User: What shape does this take?
Amino acid sequence: MAEEKKKTGSTTKTTAAKKTTASKGSKGAAAALQVTGNATGLRIGAVVLWVLAIAFEILAILLLFGKYEITFMPTLACLIIFIVLDLICVIIGSQLWKKANRIDPASEKNSLKFWLWNNMGLIVSVFAFLPLIILLLTNKEKLDNKTRVIAVIAAVIALLIAGAASYDWNPVSQEGKEQAMQEVTGTVYWTTFGKVYHTSSECSHINGKDNVDDGTVQEAIESGRTRMCKTCADRDGYQIDENGAVTAVGN
Ligand SMILES: [Zn+2]
Assistant: This one.
């Protein structure tokens, strides 16, 4: 009788384990499907803004070459307005692109696509300002020297700001995200401006702060907290890698 009970118990256990795996799998697939649509919208938004950015650069270049004239404003003011509009479009586009990459990350198996996907904003930044900078530097007769120098400085500063704001400093790979979602099943915590998530609300980096949000690790990654806090990882026995993955070590 006791033996039978034991047997039944172990059978139930196995079935339960299988069930968990199955539901995890289908849940993961459903979530992936759901978020891909969302990410596509963000990518389209990013591309539209980037095209607009290039359009503003072209307007600046055409103005430089005297293809049209603006009479109610000095040329320099006009160039700077185009540079600023170009910059705004690049930065917002890149934020949408980065958000899409957190929802639907590229696989690290294809290293070229992974690199391109994570650096797309940076590449666009170069295209959005470098041609204008080169044309300003090489066409000395088009503008007076002072106007030209100020315009070049404005465009270089814009390129640097756009590049820094577009570069993905904490990229996450598809494998890294999936791995973190499998490994970290409890609630995680993050602060409004924090770049990492914490596995404990008692972590010394967030303890006592009043702007702490919580949610699943998926929510943390999709809101831009792609890495586990180092202190939390050490405490929980996790190793963190550069693409967002966390691996249990030691135990
Ligand atoms: Zn922490």
Observations:
- The radius of gyration is 25 Å.
- Residues 64 and 143 are 7 Å apart (CA to CA).
- Residues 2-64 form the longest helix (63 residues).
- Residues 198, 203, 205, 229, 231-232 surround zinc ion (CB under 6 Å).
